[in-house]
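Agenda item 2: copper (II) ion complex prediction
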Amino acid sequence: MCAERRGMVAPLAIACGLMLASAFAHAQVTVSEPWIRATVGGQKVAGGYMQLKSARDTALVAANSPAAATVEVHEMAVVDNVMKMRALQKLDVPAGRTVELKPGGYHIMLINIKEPMKIGAKIPLQLIFEDKDKKRETVDITAEVRPIGGASMGKGEHKHH
Ligand SMILES: [Cu+2]
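Presented output:
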């Protein structure tokens, strides 16, 4: 399926992703620049980040990966001055708008990872989107593990519920 082919090349430059998106116009969702943050020590969770864009209104409703027991879609928000994250039933991806998953905001959470996330590793991820007519689209991507740093949210980041 086109979505899968496109997913395979998603780690390439955004420009490439956009070209492919127009070449396969019937496929809805484009995923660009997926990456997973490297883990340290015995950390059991890892955050995944990427940009989502869809030709039609849709929503990210689920995700999974062979590298983790569970994968959830999370949101980070300040509640009573404390940065917290919570699982979302779905993350809306409105037509034509780029939805960014990034540190400190929306993210994919890999929970109970089977091995530490090592820099440079390529982690398969499957994203499941569902539109308002309940039509599902599955997108397979490969996310590269990148170092901790950049827009770090501090120590509380991976405390869960
Ligand atoms: Cu999270």
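Discussion summary: The two ends are 37 Å apart (CA to CA).
Owner for follow-up: CH.
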